[in-house]
Amino acid sequence: MSAQIPISTFKPYRGEKARLARAYDYLILVLALFLFIGSFHLHFALTVGDWDFWVDWKDRQWWPLVTPLIGITFPAAVQAVLWDKFRLPLGATLCVAALLLGTWVTRVFAYHYWNFFPINMVLPATMVPGALVLDTLLMLTNSLTITSIFGGGAFALLFYPTNWPIFGMFHQAVDYHNSQLSVADVFGFQYIRTGMPEYLRIIERGTLRTYGQYATPLSAFCSALLCSLMYPLWWKIGKLFADTRYLKKI
What we know:
11 helices, oxidoreductase
């Protein structure tokens, strides 16, 4: 039988020790926030990549399909932790806000001020409305199945109309060397950048001027189906990493 230690033995920190303990907790929270922003931003940059970086790569086929599918991964995992452990319905909104913060810092300082790209050329997409719907459905239903089907679908379907007011202006047709292009195409031809050379991809099928035609709704609904399947997978991954496990005493 192990001896029980009375609760009165444990005394809270007071004075200088309490101040240092609180300062240490705040430091850990700030470092954890920056680590989370960096990890989600790195994950997003390596998977979505050029579709979210360049305005002329935001095409009608892959951009509405890939971006929500990759963007729902971290929100689902964080929701599994915050909702299951703390009953806080803000996991998805927190993730998207952290991603936007890290993305804007990168685009402004690394691409605009450092590499002199116009900020209009490297505007990031937003997923805030879809994240709000995802958190709201989880809070109202408290059901993983309903949130996966309807929340995951809404997260993908809201991506197209949410970003249309931001990127619709780049559809403006211009005459460029006796060729009809869009403003987004002119950006792509005028500014040299690393990555895939322009002559290796078919310009007509991969630029913003085709965004908004028949392929976009099909890509959006396909992304909604895949997001409904991706959401419970990453929910389980987040819950697995949040489980507390103890080693057996030998």
